[in-house]
Amino acid sequence: MKLALRRWRQDDAKIIVAACTDTITQRYLPLLPSPYTHADALAFIERGATERAVVDADSDEVLGAIGWRPGRDNTAEIGYWVVPAARGRRVASTAVELLSAELFQTDFQRLYLQTALTNVASQRVAIAAGFTREGIARGASRWRDGTRYDTVVWARLADDPPGPSPRALPDLPDGRLTDGVVVVRPMVAEDGLVTYNLRVLPEVSGRSVVGTPADPAVIARQCAESASKWLAGQRAEMTIWRADDDAYLGEIAVYYAEPVLREAMIGYSLMPEARGHGYAARAARLVTDWGFESGMARMIAGTAVDNIASQRVLEAAGYEREALQHARLPGPDGTRLDNVMFAKVRPAAA
Predict the structure, then answer these.
(1) Which of 20, 227, 331, 333 has a 20 to 30 A CA-CA distance from 152?
(2) Which residues 6+ apart lie within 8 Å of 285 measured at CB?
(3) Residues 6 or more apart from 7 whose CB is under 8 A from it?
(4) Of 295, 44, 72, nearest to 52 (Cα)?
(5) Sheet of strand 263-270: strand arrangement
(6) What does the alpha-carbon distance between residue 257 and residue 281 come to, in Å, rounded to a whole number?
(7) Model confidence over 155-197: pLDDT tens digits?
(8) Statement: residue 350 has pLDDT above 60
(9) Cα-flanking dihedrals φ and ψ of residue 19, to 5°?
(10) Beta carbons of 186 and 226 less than 8 angstroms apart
């Protein structure tokens, strides 16, 4: 499908109203009027000097909207929305590419956009259009109730290469990993309750390096923002499920702290009823193999000295004990614990 950008027309008002009353559009564009009326659409059209309709180049069907807000020193912020029926068809990313090319030809040198941490679709648009993730703008936007939220800042310069921008952590093939016994899937917002029930277990929270918030709402938000960290190349958080009945078993993650060395760390936890069945070792093998296929050269993991069960998991997954690191892990009441370091190196190509 070929797209084009054109000026808005009065007869576009109906489709604008339909798109701007959509739940997702209202959520991620909280400054839109609510309810959004025909009069709002006409006002939007009339002030549209920097707004364009995204249309099918052949049929002129409106598929979305894109616009820009000029800033200082030849910069501009881009924003967009897509009608519900056109989502998932590269409409937004293609529109961003078209508008970027147009703006760069008119002396703009830096274009940027901001996305909510939970707006994964919009972050994928930025990546596909060749924008680079620059960081987090804390409290940069407000939800409709007035509370502030952080945004991810993405930017593209006039001399940047065409997209998509590179990613350190690719998606899972077909959206999951499986060996027929366990299934590993990316963590999503809907995993909030099972993740909370796992992380608050004393034997899990007591061995957590970062600690576990005792608030299910915080855990739910962390799950919802998990995909953003994956797209950033920081860590890939996944849930583990039993293949035959889709029972929740636990979680596993890849932390890509040393991309220059191509070294990543795995960590995992299981529900009590899932322990002792080899599920953790299966998940660790799947995730480790995915890491190697994604370009990592070395995978590491660590356990407390007394965590024999976890050490057996790593050994079953093909990891080898390398070292004892003194006082590496935080312990209770300000103490420090020794860490047993395990590693697995990517096999040499045949």
Answers:
(1) 20
(2) 179, 317, 318
(3) 48, 52, 53
(4) 44
(5) 177-178, 182-186, 235-242, 248-258, 263-270, 298-304, 336-345, 320-330
(6) 22
(7) 999 999 988 999 999 999 999 999 999 999 999 999 999 999 9
(8) no
(9) -70, -40
(10) yes
- Quote the CA–CA distance of 192 and 220 in Å, as a whole number: 4
Give the tokens for residue 62. 């409106």
Mean pLDDT, residues 36-60: 95
Give me the torsion for CA of 218, 224, 226, 229, rounded to 10°: -100
Task: Spell out a b/e string for 149-161, using b for 16 or more CB atoms within 10 Å of the CB, else e.
Answer: bbbbbbbbeeebe
Nearest to 198 by CA among 290, 265, 275, 300: 275
Protein fold of 173-345? Aminopeptidase (3.40.630)
Cβ atoms 100, 111 nearer than 8 A: yes
Task: Classify residue 246 by burial, with Cβ atoms within 10 Å: 0-12, 13-18, 19+.
Answer: exposed
Residues 251 and 111: their CA atoms lie apart, in Å, by 38
Q: Would the pTM of this model clear 0.85, i.e. be above it?
A: yes
The model's pLDDT over 218-266, given as tens digits with 9 standing for 90+, comes to 999 999 999 999 999 999 999 999 999 999 999 999 999 899 999 999 9
Mean of per-residue pLDDT scores for the chain = 95
Can you point out the beta strands (E) in 198-247?
Answer: 235-242
In CATH, the number for domain 3-157 is 3.40.630.30
Residue count (the chain):
350
pLDDT of residue 349: 66
CATH 3.40.630.30 domain extents, the chain: 3-157, 173-345
